[in-house]
Write a structure and sequence with these properties.
The chain has 233 residues and is α/β, with parallel strands linked by helices.
């Protein structure tokens, strides 16, 4: 049974979403501010966190930043209808997805399930010996899907599930262009719609992480209006 942490200062949302998730078979923990959630996460991490952005004591952005210092567990942001800047910033900081308020609880459940399936697939729990699970080496890049491990020039790079899958999809066929639609198919289930900006934000975050270990990293090329390509270095 997967454990989901809900962090939101709106008690009505906490109550209603928790009831829905528990009815779907999830174990749910609720917190009404970021600091309370962080205190609990420091003792034991859940399998996934769903975070509101604007909260007292510690907001969702600060909480995400602290989480990403020690874990790549999936994180979904709950954002207000007009918080486009917050959505983009959250994705750049390492969130895996976002859902706009007011939202369909069914949609949220589908996105949670999609992220958990990807997490399990990347960790090797749901897949056998396939091209997606074999250790892949492309020049200075080494990816081990079963351990969710990435190194560049021998240095560890910590990626979220979404970032890992996008990099894997690009690096599997160096020199070939992947459109944003193709990358969406890799990173998201058919039930989940995301726009181009979401993929772009994930790619920007991915590049930033690679450049944190190598400032000259340039293996991921943007072809404007077309998509992205991995160039083996």
């Amino acid at each position: 049974m997967s454990k989901i942490a809900l962090v939101d200062d709106d008690r009505n949302i906490l109550t209603s979403v928790a009831m829905t998730l528990e009815a779907e078979g999830f174990e749910v923990e609720t917190y009404n501010d970021g600091q309370s959630a962080l205190d609990a996460f420091n003792k034991k991490l859940p399998d996934m966190a769903v975070l509101d952005i604007k909260m007292p004591r510690m907001d969702g952005m600060d909480l995400l930043q602290r989480l990403r210092q020690k874990t790549s567990m999936p994180v979904i942001f709950l954002t207000s209808k007009d918080d486009e800047i917050d959505e983009v910033l959250g994705l750049r900081m390492g969130a895996d997805d976002y859902v706009k308020k007011p939202f369909s609880q069914r949609l949220l459940v589908e996105r949670i399930r999609a992220l958990l399936r990807r997490q399990e697939a990347v960790s090797g729990d749901l897949v056998g010996d396939t091209e997606e699970t074999k250790v892949m080496e492309r020049g200075e890049l080494r990816m081990d899907p079963l351990r969710h491990a990435v190194t560049w020039k021998g240095l560890d790079v910590s990626l979220t599930v979404t970032e890992f899958l996008l990099l894997q999809a690009l690096a599997q066929r160096p020199g070939f262009v992947k459109s944003r639609d193709q990358l969406m198919d890799v990173a998201y289930d058919d039930q989940v719609y995301v726009d181009d900006r979401t993929i772009d934000s994930h790619i920007k975050r991915l590049r930033k992480k690679m450049r944190s270990v190598d400032s000259d990293f340039s293996a991921i090329e943007t072809l404007y209006g077309i998509g992205y390509r991995y160039n083996e270095e």
